[in-house]
Amino acid sequence: MPWLEYEAETASTNGVTIGPDRNFGTIPSEASGRRAVRLEAPGQFVELTSTARANAIVVRYVIPDAPAAAGRPRR
Question: Count of domains in the chain?
């Protein structure tokens, strides 16, 4: 089945576009185009407009797992 692909970093946003980055463990390095959008405050958004009819959507997002996005300490 054919599909359309939209990337947040090419959409309308008032967030912060980050990347490109290929360093292991960074948010952009995990994104398909090595770029992403970071929403840092209430009211920030990414707005996409489909150019064709759709029957599904897949959204990938990251939520910090610790204060200041520090994550678990490595041992």
Answer: 1
